[in-house]
Amino acid sequence: MQGRALNMNAVPYSMLEANKAQILRKMAQYQTIYRYDNIMQLDFELTTRLRIVEASYLLYRSGVRFATFKESECNETYWLRTEKGGFKLKENVLPSVALNDIFFNGSLYAFECAVAIVMVFYKGVLESIGKRGFNQLFTNLVLYSGKFDEDLNLQNHYGYDFLEGDCAYFKNPDHHEDTPQWQGENTIIVGDDLYFGHGVGVKSAEGIIELLNKKRKENATESAYLTSYITRVGFRYLSQFYVHRDVLVEVDYDKLPLVVSQIGSSTYIG
């Protein structure tokens, strides 16, 4: 590790409230090395991860319903329902207004789990970069499975460095052919062994697997399982729009790049 090493105790507590510190400790335990150009990028990622977790619980309590694409519903004041069952932002509607409506008028909406994940990602980003930046970036929102604005800059990889705010996928290989919606479950990691999935709620990995196993075909032999496929928001790219990017910090973090790692029993950023 090049450059000056800083013990994490030297980082201002205002930058590392309890939940952020918890994520940092997890990052330090993994073999993965997390690099940042500056402390602002790190703080943006930690903040946005927590905003995504908050958005997951907000969506969970919003009253939205699970539905296949064929049966999806939306508030037509803000969205046009497409032929495939997705939602397209109406002209002259602010993206932030339409997105927030899903979370606060959930009873008007029904959709499947992959769409819910993208909604939660968008909401977490909105709360981190603010309405002005969000409305500039996401002027043509379309909510559909596998469809997202390139400015969300989603990153996919295989691994087991699961962190709050990540999307983790549970696969159900022996699902019944008549219910393809149960071939798996997209979830947001919201805590230690806690996952939010639209249509299943907030459960442990064991709880989600147990539920998916009830959706298998007759005489199924292979259990559902948590895969190593992880999807993350493009934190580095989006950090340039961070509403707190100009906040001064008390420690000199001008040594680049930053690396979160573990040496002995201490956690360092250096």
From TrEMBL:
InterPro entries on file: Gln_gamma-glutamylTfrase_bac
Keyword Kinase on entry: no
Pfam hit, one: TGL
Record key words, sorted: Acyltransferase, Sporulation, Transferase
GO terms of molecular function: protein-glutamine gamma-glutamyltransferase activity
The enzyme's E.C. designation: 2.3.2.13
HAMAP family: Tgl
Protein name from the UniProt record: Protein-glutamine gamma-glutamyltransferase
Organism: Priestia flexa
